[in-house]
Amino acid sequence: MPLENRNRSNTILVTGAAGFIGFHVSKALLNLGYTVIGIDNLNDYYDVNLKLARLEELGIDKTQALQDLNETSSSTFGSRMIFVKMNLEDRESLPKLFENFAVDRVCNLAAQAGVRYSLENPEAYADSNLTGFLNILECCRNFKVTKLVYASSSSIYGNSDNVPFEETANVDHPVSLYAATKKANELMAHAYTHLYGFESIGLRFFTVYGPWGRPDMAMFLFTEAIVNEKPLKVFNNGDLSRDFTYIDDIVAGVLATLLHTSKNASPYKLYNIGNSKPVQLLEYIEAIESALNKKAIRQMLPMQPGDVKQTYADVSALQNDYNYQPKTEVREGIAAFVAWYKSFYMI
């Protein structure tokens, strides 16, 4: 569809649209009547079939999902969900996408995820999280995007003992490359906001879980191990706590910052987005056991390199500026994930 015929203010680019959070945000935007331009490189960091299944839920079949920008049919320009397979670090294709579609706002959720994987494949983090993010910033600058909301991470707080974590805390001591790239993203966004005037909001996500979740995260790994009667790896002998945050609460916070103006508007903002109720790891496992009605085989292990002992979000800033209020208790969220898992894998 020609740019002049598309409602720019109604068109939002979501990167990582086939990912866990990106899928849920895209679905929510479509339900609200927005046009979503989704991109994802569909890499094999985890099961690509799960990513394709998410896209199918958004109305994108496998053939469409595997098309790059040059193969995107002109007929798709009339759709409210348009998907293009693309790497963020592609310096030629990303600007062309911004040329082809009149994007008003960008929700950047694409990144090479995972703390432990950054120890094995650091180059992937430089490509996606640094070069890719720079390309997003350049496109926001050159194509007059009004607002960029992007994913940061609770991991940037490192092993801080000052809880709950506040946005004003010193985050100069990351303990993983993944965390370092997220810190870099915040600094890069600050520079571009200062220089070029568009609004940027960084969201520090705290341990997101729920239906359609990532297979490399605790909720999925624990459920899979219990279902298949395999040893469940419990790091630091279970002496860990996490601010587990249900996906619906995360989406509510993302949409609030993306679609609305804060009562304390500022060109550059950072917010924690979590449940603000840390849960001990062993308690979390017990809740999964209860939902599955099956006991875990626990393999107690030492702390993993790059991991942190606790996370705990102070969400008062997001509550104050955007009326954010997480609503989902952990046992309720775990039950919803387990129900989805059983249905998706036909257990």
TrEMBL record:
**Where exactly are the transmembrane stretches of this chain?**
none
Pfam families reported for this sequence = Epimerase (PF01370)
Domain spans labelled NAD-dependent epimerase/dehydratase: 12-274
Query: What InterPro entries does the annotation carry?
Result: Epimerase_deHydtase, NAD(P)-bd_dom_sf
Its domain of life reads: Bacteria
What keywords is this UniProt entry annotated with?
NAD
Q: Output this protein's name.
A: UDP-glucuronate 4-epimerase
Q: Which organism is it from?
A: Gelidibacter sediminis
